[in-house]
Specification:
By secondary structure, the chain is mainly alpha-helical. It is built from 5 helices and 4 strands; from the N terminus they run H-E-H-H-E-H-E-E-H.
């Protein structure tokens, strides 16, 4: 499985209403130093319908100003549709951060 495929598999597991950091996704995909690789992989996302890249944020909860599918406002809109509260371009990781546990992601 390629690095990008491993990243996409992790991102697919992030439940609705939760977010993960680039570093968390990198570590779960096999290398905690891949944060920038995660960013690039998500920018190249081949299937945004099935790979919810908008659920990935910076470690401190900030949204990506360079969100590839419509910018930060689009990312915020998608997160809000799932019940994630965004204040001043930031998500409260203590409330909305994913713990990495698998859940029903329907």
């Amino acid at each position: 499985m390629s690095t990008f495929q491993r990243i996409y598999e992790v991102v697919k597991r992030i439940p609705k209403g939760k977010v993960a950091s680039y570093g968390q996704v990198a570590a779960m995909a096999g290398n905690p130093r891949w944060s920038r690789v995660v960013s690039y992989a998500l920018h190249c996302n081949p299937d945004p319908e099935k790979i919810p890249c908008y659920r990935v944020v910076f470690q401190d909860g900030r949204l990506s100003p360079a969100f590839a599918f419509g910018g930060q406002n689009a990312q915020e809109k998608l997160l809000r549709q799932e019940g994630v509260e965004v204040r001043e371009g930031r998500v409260d990781m203590a409330v909305y951060g994913w713990d990495g546990a698998d859940t029903d992601n329907s």
